[in-house]
Structures are given as C-alpha cells and as structure tokens.
C-alpha cells in the first residue's frame, strides 16, 4: 500500500495541512502512520476529502458528512436527503434566474427612471417580502 504524505495530500486536495489535521482530529479522515512527525495517509483519504468537498458544496455540515462515512471509511450517502438538497438547489437556481432576468431588464429598461419601471417596482416588492420571510 502506497502512503501519501500530508504535504502531498494537501497539494492534491487543495486543502491546507491544518485542515487535514483538523479533519483527522474530528474523525473525518484517518492517518495510517507517520514518517517522522509527518502524518501518512492511504489513497482512500484523497477520495474521502473529495467527498467532504462535495458535501460541503451541497450544504452539508461536517457533522452530517461524518455520519455519511461507515467505520471502514466507505461513503453511505442518504439518498432521500440528497434528493431534497438537489430540489432545493433547483428552486434556488430558478429564483436566481428570475432575479438575473429582472436585473437585465432593469439595466436596459426604457422607462424614464427606474422608479417608473413596473418590473423594477415588482422586483423591489419581491425583495421586501423575501426579507420579511427570512426575518419571520
């Protein structure tokens, strides 16, 4: 089994060595030995780090991600939760697409002022309602 030095794993993963040490401390990854004072990892650690990055991008907490790894380090992904998060991303994408389209319209609006543009007024009303919902 070829071992990967913490510095090499850091370069490969794009994560700092302090992040790798933290992930080891909280049980997300596990070193398999040391070469002097430097931690050594097996190839599975690189796969786990990629899954951790993906999980973080999907909005999972480190505790959520930790629960997705079995004792042997193999991922056990919660399919229903993945579907729920994918659906939430779809909704966010639709909202951001509408916002982008509205901003393009406002930027190019032929109205005399933005305050005379009906679409801009609707955009402001939407923003006010969205803020009120987040605060509630």
From TrEMBL:
PROSITE patterns: HTH_MERR_2. Keywords: DNA-binding, Transcription, Transcription regulation. InterPro entries: DNA-bd_dom_put_sf, MerR-type_HTH_dom, MerR_fam, Tscrpt_reg_MerR_DNA-bd. It comes from the Bacteria. It holds the Pfam family MerR-DNA-bind. SUPFAM superfamilies: Putative DNA-binding domain. GO terms for molecular function: DNA binding; DNA-binding transcription factor activity. Residues 3-71 form the HTH merR-type domain. PANTHER family: MERR FAMILY REGULATORY PROTEIN (PTHR30204:SF97), REDOX-CYCLING DRUG-SENSING TRANSCRIPTIONAL ACTIVATOR SOXR (PTHR30204). This is MerR family transcriptional regulator. It comes from Thalassococcus profundi. The lineage of its organism: Bacteria, Pseudomonadati, Pseudomonadota, Alphaproteobacteria, Rhodobacterales.
